[in-house]
Each structure stands twice: as structure tokens, then as C-alpha cells.
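Researcher: Quick one. four chains, 248 residues in total.
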Amino acid sequence: MSDRSHTAQSRSECPVATALDVLGDKWTLLVIRDLLDGRRRFSEFERSPEGIPTNILSDRLKKLTEAGLIEARPRGTTTRFDYVPTDAAVALRPTLLALAAWGNDHFADTWTPPATWLEQSAES
Amino acid sequence: MSDRSHTAQSRSECPVATALDVLGDKWTLLVIRDLLDGRRRFSEFERSPEGIPTNILSDRLKKLTEAGLIEARPRGTTTRFDYVPTDAAVALRPTLLALAAWGNDHFADTWTPPATWLEQSAES
DNA sequence: CAGTATCCATTTTGATACTG
DNA sequence: CAGTATCAAAATGGATACTG
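Model:
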């Protein structure tokens, strides 16, 4: 619920700091990862191996929508949505790739990004 | 104090998740940014515009040291240190650059990385 | 299924004071 | 300067129950 003031730099003029205002927590970038991996529905994010709690997931989807990284498209007549990454979210792919490469180099063994990471547009 | 189990992937096999186990919070990547920007002393980190509290800074320097991203070199005979980035920390520069570029593109106006970001080795 | 709400324990933050 | 200690407030986490 707290306003992250995403319309401008809130903590400083440093773009890293402003980016971290939106992304700097334990779960947000994992949601983005799943988004870039082609997931669209609540349950799809939920079943990621890290096991994000449903209340946290709900909160992050909301905040990312407010921050302009997700477009929540109503599905049918229900309260359900498809969570579609905006261009701003898609633009995070280089960051995610760099982060994944680093994590892989320094903490894991071998790993290659899924094919879905290498091409994909903002719109379905 | 809590062990982050940095010696292996703790939350899953995904390198993004393992990277986030070390970096996924509000302050850590800002400390890394300052480290890559050439800062070495407690007070230098402290005076960054974001205003990190001293107890948080102390904690992060400790955790980054445990995680192998910082080498804490004693300075003189006191309890003071120079905090030097290891190769693992330096290897985060592409990630930071990508993140900064994204933050700049989507939340700020114009910005270019400081010259210190473009070249610098792990050792002083 | 697709979420929202609630409760409660744990963690993190932030401000400030304090020590060598 | 270079941190450590303390403590209240806020955020987060996890389990579980609930609604349409």
C-alpha cells in the first residue's frame, strides 16, 4: 500500500537507487523473471520453486502494476487477470541475464537461460 | 546474523534466485555500487546520498565479506578496515550497469556512469 | 481456480546514542 | 573516525482460512 513514488526518483538521482526502489527486495525480480519466462497467471507465478506466499505475490503484482511494469488484463468476466509485462519490464531482460550469469558464475554450476528469455515481446 | 548459506544455492537452482539471496534487499547493491565507484572506508559509504543507517551499513559490510564479495583489510593497528571488492563483486559491474541504464531509461532523465565504473580491478 | 484477508512470528529498518 | 548497541516501528514471511 505504501507509495513508492515511482513517477520520479525518490531517494536520489542515482538510477541504481531509483531502480532499487522498485526492484530492491527479495521477491520482485523473481516475479519479473517469471514474467519474462512467459508466465501470466497467478497460479503460474505461485508454483515457482521458490514458493512465494500468496499474499506477497498478490502484493507484488499490485505494486508492479502501479509501477508500470505489469499490465493486468481482465480475463473473462471474473476478477481474474493476465499479468502481462510492459515494455519497461521487458527492458529488464539484460539486467536479469547479467544477474543470472553472475549467480551462475559465483554460486552455481552450469546453467543456460531458457529459450524464452532470448526472444519475446511485451505484448502477447 | 542469520546464515545466508552463500556457499551454495539456498532457495533453488535458479541463478537469479541464488543471486538474490545475496543481493536481494534494499541496500546491498548500493553498497556494491559504491564499492565499484572506488569507495573503501566506512565513512565513504556512509556519506552516500541515500543515507544508509550505520547499523545497516555495518551489517551489510559484514555479510558481503562473509559472502566473498568484500575483502576487509585491516588499516593500521586499529579496528578499522579498507573494504575492497573481490573479483566476485567486480563481476557485478555489468549487472549494475544494466540496472542503472534501466533506472535511467524508465525513471530518470539523463545520466552516464562515472568514469570509475568503466575500468577498475579487484585489487587496489 | 484465482485471488483476498487475517493472524502472528520473524526480520529489517531507521533513529539515535554510545564506545574506543 | 569507525564502528557497535539499543529499541521501536514497519515490512516481510508463512500458514491458513475464506470468497466468488
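Confidence is low (pLDDT under 50) at residues 1-11 of chain A.
Researcher: Thanks, that's what I needed.
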